[in-house]
């Protein structure tokens, strides 16, 4: 969408979704007249795959280039899962843009060797048999019991995930496996920050893992959202939007 403001909330989506996962936030911010921008990573949603993109830094630079293209000079970044990893890179390499952070269902640690091997095995399986098995697994792992009971939401999530290209998924898995450990930079983050976990996220980023981010960032606040697992903005948008809009108003954004 076209942005006519030098300040905007930047939405960074989870893997393997796209910016449509934030549709409830778009509605809420429009009611509040708060400018926002949401950009799909290459190979996801409306952005074509870039074959050479296999590093979180490349995804981050692409996002930042789009911000400058739209003349956006200041952001509050909201990043779920992979979006959080992009936020760490924004802080390390483009921090002049950042006025606030909302980390959602993400972690500061790099992948363990075991996790890296699992991602590589997934890549090989996608090359052999396609992406459907991954989408099925992600739908199960990323959603709460309450979300699983909502067939409409589950179908919507499946449709969003299915828009991802196989090459885009493979590239992103490579980038995720090779990302840097960000625990050391937590203490350097000196902008307003809130950290949000889904209370029912048992398989991907359990709340205690997410909380390590807020524990490491000075004055950061931590929240758990009920009836949500890895995708709180989509699973429980009412509670998520309350926290987000309250935060934006507190920092006068």
Explain the layout of strands and helices:
Blueprint: E1 7-12, H1 23-31, E2 36-38, H2 56-69, E3 74-80, H3 82-93, E4 98-104, H4 113-129, H5 132-141, H6 145-148, H7 151-162, H8 166-177, E5 193-198, H9 207-216, E6 221-225, H10 232-235, H11 237-250
Parallel strand pairs: 1-2, 1-3, 3-4, 4-5, 5-6
Helix pairs in contact: 1-11, 2-3, 4-8, 5-7
Give a description of the structure:
This protein is of the alpha/beta class and 253 residues long. The protein has a single domain (7-250), classed as Alpha/Beta hydrolase fold, catalytic domain (Rossmann fold, 3-Layer(aba) Sandwich), CATH 3.40.50. 47% of the residues lie in helices and 13% in strands. The protein contains eleven helices and six strands. Strands 2-1-3-4-5-6 form a six-stranded parallel beta sheet, with helices on both faces. Strand 1, helix 1 (23-31) and strand 2 (36-38) form a beta-alpha-beta unit. The protein starts with 6 loop residues before the first strand and ends with a helix.
CATH architecture: 3-Layer(aba) Sandwich
Largest sheet: 6 strands, parallel
CATH C-level category:
Alpha Beta
The number of distinct β-strands equals: 6
Helix coverage percent: 40-55%
Shape: globular
| Through-space gap between termini | 20 Å
Keywords, separated by commas or semicolons:
alpha/beta; 6 strands; Rossmann fold; 253 residues; six-stranded parallel beta sheet; 13% strand
